[in-house]
Automatic annotation (TrEMBL):
Bilayer topology annotation: Multi-pass membrane protein
Location in or out of the cell: Membrane
Protein name, per record: Uncharacterized protein
Signal peptide region: none
Upper classification of the organism: Eukaryota, Metazoa, Spiralia, Gnathifera, Rotifera
Transmembrane regions: 366-388, 545-564, 584-607, 619-641, 653-671, 709-733, 772-793
Pfam families in alphabetical order: ABC2_membrane_3, ABC_tran
Keywords in alphabetical order: ATP-binding, Membrane, Nucleotide-binding, Transmembrane, Transmembrane helix
Main localization category: membrane
Entry-linked SMART domains: AAA
InterPro entries assigned to the protein according to its UniProt record, in alphabetical order: AAA+_ATPase (IPR003593), ABC2_TM (IPR013525), ABC2_TM_bact-type (IPR047817), ABC_2_transport (IPR000412), ABC_transporter-like_ATP-bd (IPR003439), ABC_transporter-like_CS (IPR017871), P-loop_NTPase (IPR027417)
Record flagged with keyword Transmembrane helix: yes
Species this chain originates from: Rotaria socialis
Length: 903
């Protein structure tokens, strides 16, 4: 939360304060008033800054001293605008940091963080040029400053890699980056760590020099308390409280000490005694920082802690109260002002600097770039090789009783087995049925195909004599005993054997001159409107897979890059240099654009041309769709990095979200196979609609004009935008959102806060929501969400209307009135009854027709009484040739003889 209006302080407003006994007005560069800062959430928050008042005059060196963990860095981060206070105010050069038009964060501040925060693969020169470009310095100026800083800070050759430098040298490069643009305010967090005494002296001399000559204000933290004697003013901190603040010589005089270290020790002892007096006995030995109630004690204590400067005077020095009142009276005005703060257009020079930085990072790691190109290719190749292909060489056992027993009537069983493609099913023959079954149970085979001893005879009886008694049907069938534990394999086995059996039957029928088409099922699959007669799973899954590969790759890489930069302090350094999240993301997208386009082209070439994945539609449209989805992945990666602090967290969040998205978006299995609720939810994954669009382009050849295609594009773009906005808002406001909670805790627990203060904080809290809602990106996101929902609802209504039309046919009686559920069930029962009656009637009719046909045929013997055979044909029942028998008969029923196809 922003704790006060940032932009309404007049730039020419002069801040004055009274320093100790000088009573002399001075111009302040940095001024904090009753600054409170908490870290953490409601249940576990710690107060790091307790009512801090700091006054840093312009053009002076301010030494911020204190032991490790006392809150120095936190205070510095608040001053440069990286953290917002929970309570209190800060002005830097008369304006709150981060206010519109203020160059803090930005060019006016040179920040050297505690960690080195440098790109390890960069040379010293590249590092300096990067910051120079960020600060919009021209090349000539950068070169001049580079030369000076390298010699001044005693740095090695400028072409040396940062990773090859010692820790101390790296810190000096970091200091050089902070000094580069000659900022008005220099904030140096322990710049002299790892620096030899000679160079330390040199650095101090330079700092004193620039503070005098160019009026640079310098805030410096250091553990070496004595070196701070060179500062114009020091602040001594302990446990988040300012114990004393004044000129070093005045402090020495006041406490009658010879060194600042002794002054600090004395102050610490006094503070400790005071703390113990104030604390309840039970908590005296406890940890001060662990819970909020301590905060209350600290708050009370803070009023009694030593302040060399006059607190009361300080309370009056900041011109916030009038502004607050003005905005409290008109919250909308306040909200508008705040919204305008965020309407900052991305700066070309910063995007350019960040792009050069990204390209340099890539250039330094060509191996990783190659890996980025290869990964999608390897993934799609593996997918095409491993997924969707028909299983081959499936091992099966065969028990052919007819062949074993050498049944004399024929060898139709062998003819059937010959029809089965050995590339698909590989048979191993068994002489005993039980052994074959055992082999399957042992997992050696996927099933047993059993043929009975008189298979040939039974087939002939069935096909030629129409014998349909159970024994004939049983003996004429191939019996399968399958291991159904693998669905895909058992489906393939069944399909192969059914097709082979059909072919076999047709062959047998043809050999007896019977039209083989009588074994065709009464379904004619005409030429498909889309796709192929024999559809391939690969063509169904590959489009979704191509989109998913790019999407997930973009998520992982982006999230990791940003989290690593965040962790190493590089992102913070960029933000303090005035870069916005939008600029960082834009530079990232532009650089990644080229990488991603190459990745997608490789992907398509491999999938389409090498693995023959069907892409009937426009290749360009496919590339564009995959690209938009890649941007969506980048935005999602950015969102992940905005909430994660460590690489491991990125991995957890990324992997944790990859599978749910993949599984619920219909990439692997049709959405139609999901329960209806899940199917509805699948509409809200970032992959579902783009995958559907990709499938429409690939297998239907649809263009952009089709609803599903353009909706896929719109969907991917909307998700990209949504993720991006949420990430940007989280990056910008995450600290504020957390602070909201802790402020409330503080407010509830602080005993001395007036109701007016509470209402003030409530106002500020509501304001932060207004701030979020009034951001143009948020409005755009909300509008696009409304549009997407509207389109979705409209589409569903249309589909429901169609469905309703079909249902009406059943559910409405003649009068067109709606039926109740009971009425509907009654109607269903009647309808089923009618259907049964109709089927019975049809069966009777068929029976009559059959009898009629039989009456028309001449009877020869018992079996052939219903058939006529051609005289020259082999009699399939007797196994004898009819040729020349004089009994002219054809075994094709005369009445059902068909004309040859095409005749
Ligand atoms: N992000 C954070 N979340 C929670 N606690 C934090 C966070 N950052 C710092 N702290 C805590 O705040 C306190 C002050 O930290 P800070 O880094 O400001 O100290 P410091 O005086 O700069 O220490 P040092 O001199 O060692 O850098 C410490 O107790 C630290 O554990």
């Amino acid at each position: 939360m922003l704790s006060f209006p940032r932009d309404q302080i007049e730039s020419h407003h002069q801040l004055y304060y009274l320093v100790g006994h000088h009573n002399e007005p001075k111009d302040l560069a940095v001024c904090t008033k009753n600054a409170w800062k908490n870290y953490g959430h409601r249940c576990k928050s710690i107060t790091v800054l307790h009512d801090i008042n700091v006054r840093v005059p312009r053009g002076m060196i301010y030494g911020l001293l204190g032991p490790s963990g006392c809150g120095k860095t936190t205070l510095l981060r608040c001053i440069v605008g990286r953290l917002d206070l929970n309570r209190g105010e800060i002005l830097v050069f008369d304006k709150p940091p981060g206010s519109r038009g203020h160059e803090i964060p930005g060019r006016s501040v040179g920040f050297m963080p505690q960690e080195t925060a440098l790109y390890k693969n960069f040379t010293i020169s590249e590092m300096l040029h990067h910051f120079g470009r960020l600060h919009n310095m021209n090349r000539k100026d950068i070169l001049v400053r580079e030369e000076f800083l390298i010699s001044f800070l005693d740095l090695p050759s400028k072409s040396k890699n940062v990773s090859q430098l010692s820790g101390g040298q790296q810190r000096r490069v970091s200091l050089a980056c902070a000094l580069l643009q000659q900022p008005r305010l220099l904030i140096l967090d322990e710049p002299t760590v790892g620096v030899d005494p000679l160079l330390r002296e040199k650095i101090w001399t330079h700092l004193i020099n620039i503070s005098k000559t160019s009026k640079t204000t310098i805030i410096i933290t250091t553990h070496y308390i004595e070196e701070a004697r060179k500062a114009d003013r020091v602040g001594l901190m302990r446990n988040g409280r300012m114990l004393a603040e004044d000129e070093p010589s005045l402090l020495l005089n006041k406490y009658n000490q010879t060194s600042l270290e002794n002054v600090f020790l004395q102050l610490c002892c006094q503070d400790q005694n005071r703390l113990q007096e104030q604390m309840p006995i039970s908590t005296r030995d406890g940890d001060r920082d662990t819970d909020v109630p301590d905060d209350v004690d600290d708050q009370n204590l803070s009023s009694t802690s030593i302040h060399v400067s006059i607190n009361k005077t300080n309370q009056d020095c900041l011109p916030f109260d009038d502004q607050k009142k003005q905005f409290e009276n008109n919250p909308m005005l306040f909200a508008k002002r705040m919204a305008s703060n965020y309407l900052i257009l991305p700066k070309i020079h910063k995007i350019y600097a960040l792009m050069i930085k990204d390209v340099t990072v890539i250039k330094r790691n060509i191996g990783f770039l190659m890996f980025q190109f290869l990964i999608p290719v390897i993934q799609v190749a593996l997918f095409c090789l491993c997924i969707g292909r028909n299983p081959e060489h499936i091992p099966m056992a065969i028990y052919n009783s007819e062949a074993i027993n050498g049944f004399p009537t024929g060898n139709l069983s062998l003819q059937l087995l010959n029809k089965i493609n050995p590339d698909q099913i590989h048979f191993t023959s068994f002489n005993q049925f039980d052994k074959a079954i055992d082999a399957v149970k042992q997992g050696h085979y996927w099933g047993v195909a059993a043929i009975q001893y008189n298979f040939t005879q039974a087939i002939k009886n069935k096909l030629l004599a129409f014998q349909t008694d159970p024994t004939t049907l049983n003996q004429s069938s191939l019996h399968l005993y399958l291991d159904m534990s693998n669905q895909q394999l058992s489906i393939t086995i069944q399909s192969v054997l059914l097709n082979s059996t059909e072919l076999f039957l047709k062959e047998v029928l043809s050999s007896y001159k019977i039209d083989p088409s009588i074994v065709d099922p009464p379904v004619i699959i005409e030429n498909p409107l889309y796709g192929n007669v024999v559809p391939k799973f690969l063509n169904f899954a590959a489009p979704g897979m191509m989109i998913s590969i790019i999407f997930f790759l973009a998520i992982g890489l982006t999230a990791l890059i940003f989290v690593v930069e965040k962790k190493e302090g590089l992102l913070e350094r960029s933000w303090i240099a005035g870069v916005t999240t939008i600029e960082i993301m834009l530079a990232h997208v532009i650089v990644k654009f080229f990488i991603q386009i190459i990745q997608i082209i490789f992907l398509i070439v491999f999938a389409d041309f090498i693995f023959k994945v069907e892409i009937k539609g426009s290749i360009f449209l496919s590339i564009m769709l995959i690209f938009v989805q890649g941007i969506c992945g980048m935005s999602y990666g950015l969102l992940i990095s905005s909430v994660c602090e460590q690489e491991i967290e990125v991995m957890e969040v990324a992997i944790g979200s990859i599978f749910p998205i993949l599984l619920s978006s219909g990439v692997i299995w049709p959405l139609e196979g999901m329960p209806s609720a899940m199917r509805f939810l699948s509409n809200f994954t970032p992959l579902t609609h783009p995958v559907e669009a990709m499938r429409c382009i690939a297998s239907r050849g649809w263009s952009f004009g089709y609803f599903k295609v353009w909706f896929g594009f719109v969907n991917a773009s909307a998700w990209s935008l949504g993720f991006f906005i949420i990430a940007a808002v989280l990056f910008a406001l995450r600290k504020s959102i957390m602070d909201d909670v802790t402020i409330e805790d503080d407010l509830e627990l602080s005993q001395d806060l007036s109701s007016q203060t509470k209402s003030q904080h409530n106002f500020l809290k509501s304001f932060s929501i207004v701030e979020i809602l009034t951001q143009p990106w948020t409005i755009f996101l909300l509008l696009s969400m409304v549009v997407v929902v509207f389109i979705y609802v409209k589409r569903n209504q249309r589909r429901n209307r169609n469905l309703l039309g079909a249902r009406d046919y059943i559910r409405h009686d003649n009068s067109g009135e709606n039926l109740s559920h009971n009425q509907y069930d009654d109607m269903e029962r009647i309808r089923q009854k009618q259907q049964k009656a109709y089927e019975e009637q049809a069966l009777r009719h068929l029976e009559q027709k059959k009898i009629k046909m039989e009456n028309m045929k001449p009877r020869t013997d018992e079996t052939s009484s219903r058939l006529k055979y051609r005289s020259n044909d082999h009699n399939p029942l007797t196994g004898q040739s009819n040729r020349g028998s004089g009994d002219s008969c054809s075994w094709r029923p005369s009445s059902s003889r068909r004309k040859p196809a095409g005749g």
